[in-house]
Model the fold of this input.
Amino acid sequence: MTEKVNIDEKESPTSQLSKILAEGDFVKIPKIGDIVKGKVIDISRSEIRLDIDGLTTGIVRGREFYDESNDYADLKVGDEVEATVIELENESGEMELSFRFAGHQKAWDNLNDLKNEGKIVKATITDANKGGLMIRVGKIAGFLPVSQLMPEHYPRVPGGDKNRILDRLKSYIGKNFDTKIIDANEGEDKLIVSEKAAWEEKQKDVIASYKVSDVVEGKVTAVTDFGVFVEFGEDNLEGLIHISELAWQRIDDPNDFVKVGDKIKAEIINVEGSKIFLSIKKLKRDPWSNVSEKYKVGELVKGKVLKINPFGLFVELDEDIHGLAHISELSTKPINDPNEVAKPGDELEFKILSIEPENHRLGLSLKDLKSTSHKEEKLEATVPAPATEPEKTKPDSTEK
Done:
């Protein structure tokens, strides 16, 4: 006779974790996605086992070794670490864990701490596009916009050639820049850093040692359409001389005035944060201060046409004083294009219409000159010629 087995008396093959789960909630049972602490109890080439507070054994394997925080690079038995739960129980009754998820979260938490503390971090340049530089802080990828580069690295290219700008940016690949984190959003996987902010942090004390009206001597580092950049001081500060501050007279192209490498003196006219604004013309006497001694309204003067714009002619009266002949003052007849009247390099006679020393403006006219000349010619034509005495008749030689 076959003995009947009481199935209730036979113990089911349940795991240690299953028993704990069934016995009650005297400990906090982790959930998938939680970060748990554990002690390393075994390390092999492909697996690491952890004791999770005596609760169960956890295992980290495969791609879950990957760690963005670099905290788990040199683990040894006995070390305490954190890992993310990805499975409560595998086929062997062990808790599946991940350094990858825990490291990812830890890395982003660290980035946010650095951002909030305003700390300077090293960013490695990995690639470039026309908008800026792709970077990596630790193992987190991010972006450094062109606008956030420090002056030394900003790609100033004459004419703004985008291909040359990209070439300049690509030359930074592989380099490490000191930066500050300005945005770190794990949810959007967005990390934005600023080299300019880190540079300002390091330079603020140096910049504070300069004040408006100080005269500095430096070297021209770049020439652009809008002005000239000058490097000066032992700490290689950089200032901008706007095109309007290069000289008292009008300048259309800064390249005609200075070249990269030139040594110049300039006066500090403004300091805004990390931005220093300079002037060359401030070191020279304003030629407009005595313009009324050289020129008078109504006077006829000779000048050379420097440039032609749709609204008129720019005219050089002397090395320092330039004037404008508006299109409405070029002819007694309506014209649509000043090029109909003159071309650059022409030397013409003008009448001075107005002088504004405080605004550095002098108005000229060709129309008034022609009108005056025409009136004089007309006046000469209408005035009768003076009467002449009738020629006396010579006596006839035959007359006796």
